[in-house]
Design a protein that fits this description.
Rossmann fold, six-stranded mixed β-sheet, 11 helices, Leu-bd, BCAA_transport, signal, Branched-chain amino acid ABC transporter, periplasmic branched-chain amino acid-binding protein, Peripla_BP_I
């Protein structure tokens, strides 16, 4: 009798252990841990973990179930990102995934979510195409998209008598960004007179800069160069070194991470719009993020820190509200869902799952008390002022 009794007990124990293990809420975070986008990846992950902590009051549990975050390094490589997402869904059996940083990697990952019928929360990749016709119902985009960047910047710098030439990186982020910016400028009175695309690895901007100057130099009125750029390269400082003042050409600046902002000190008074700068939002969540990040990392939170936190807050809110990690339950809950973030209220648009969110019109201030240029708030641009085009409409 002993053997059967032990066998039964052992079997029950294994079943109980399996039940406990399956109760964990498993989330894959796929982001570049190294390379030119590695700094963005670290910010995103730091923000994501802070967001989970904030949303769960430090318990790292949702509805009594433990959160397990599985980190994977995409190396900003589309094929690697795709493979890692397949691994997360099939082998790690995660409930959902978050990431990546690069828009190119995001596009490679979209069909994987559909194949496995699992959620992918895209943060912070930006391209409009992430929620476009080639997307699918399993994609939710907490990051802002190119249209939101473009509309906000058009509102900040678009006015009659302004001529603008754009420099952008030659891939989805840059081209989607320019297309959205061009559309957003319509009706502002400003003219987009030239588009210049260069490889992401460009370090010598001499030829591109001269083409930008040639396009603007004979225009009347205010003349601005606007850049859509991510990662290293620092095109604005290099263009500034080419003496655009001889043609009365100035710069309009998009938001950027803190590491890039010391270079903005060369452009006091320049205006633009940003997704996030830690001094701009005024709400309790951002106050907590700024305080805690300063304590733990001896620096303010950055653009992608806020984005990672927003993604975490969305996930916790959705799972708590649905009382489930089932994909269909979460989709039903998240479509049209509003939740609070360091930027205030965000809402997932039901049609394409893009998060609608405020943006910030800023003016560059060279303040000796800061190592970087301050992006002084001119005004918050509310969601109601941004007619963001709907991407995927096929349901």
């Amino acid at each position: 009798m002993t053997k059967p009794r032990v066998a039964i007990t052992f079997g029950v124990a294994l079943t109980a252990l399996a039940s406990i293990a399956s109760a964990d809420i498993k989330i894959a975070h796929i982001y570049p841990g190294s390379g030119p986008l590695g700094v963005y990846g670290k910010q995103s992950h730091d923000g994501f973990m802070l967001g989970l902590e904030y949303a769960t009051d430090g318990s790292m549990m949702i509805n009594g179930e433990k959160i397990v975050v599985i980190e994977k390094d995409s190396q900003a490589n589309p094929e690697m990102g795709r493979s890692l997402l397949e691994e997360a869904y099939a082998d790690d059996e995660v409930d959902l995934a978050v990431g990546p940083v690069s828009s190119g990697v995001a596009m490679a990952m979209l069909p994987v979510a559909e194949e496995y019928e699992k959620l992918l929360i895209v943060e912070p990749a930006v391209a409009d195409s992430i929620t476009g016709p080639d997307s699918n119902r399993y994609i939710f985009h907490t990051g802002r998209n190119s249209s939101q960047d473009a509309i906000a910047n058009a509102k900040a710098i678009g006015r009659p008598g302004v001529s603008i030439a754009v420099l952008a990186q030659d891939y989805a982020f840059g081209r989607d960004g320019v297309a959205a910016f061009k559309a957003a400028l319509e009706g502002t009175g400003a003219d987009l007179v030239h588009e210049e695309y260069v490889p992401t690895t460009t370090t010598d901007f001499t030829a591109a800069g001269q083409r930008l100057f040639d396009a603007l130099k004979d225009e009347d009125g205010e003349k601005l160069i606007y850049t859509i750029w991510a990662g290293s390269g620092n095109p604005m400082s290099k263009l500034q070194a080419m003496n655009p003042e001889r043609y009365d050409i100035g710069f309009a600046l998009a938001g950027n991470i803190l590491a890039a902002l010391p270079a903005y000190k060369q452009f006091p008074g320049a205006e633009g719009a940003t997704y996030y700068y830690y001094e701009n939002p005024n709400n309790a969540i951002n106050d907590w993020l700024v305080s805690e990040h300063q304590k733990r990392f001896d620096s303010p939170p950055d653009m992608f820190t806020a984005g990672g936190m927003s993604a975490a807050l969305a996930i916790v809110n959705a799972i708590e509200s649905a009382n489930s990690t089932d994909t269909e339950d979460l989709i039903e809950t998240m479509e049209g869902m509003s939740w609070e973030t360091p930027k205030g209220t965000m809402t997932f648009r039901k049609e394409d799952h893009q998060a609608l969110q405020p943006m910030y019109h800023f003016k560059v201030v060279d303040d000796d008390a800061y190592d970087w240029a301050r992006l002084e708030l001119v005004r918050e641009i509310p969601v109601s002022e941004m007619d963001v085009p709907v991407g995927r409409t096929n349901r």
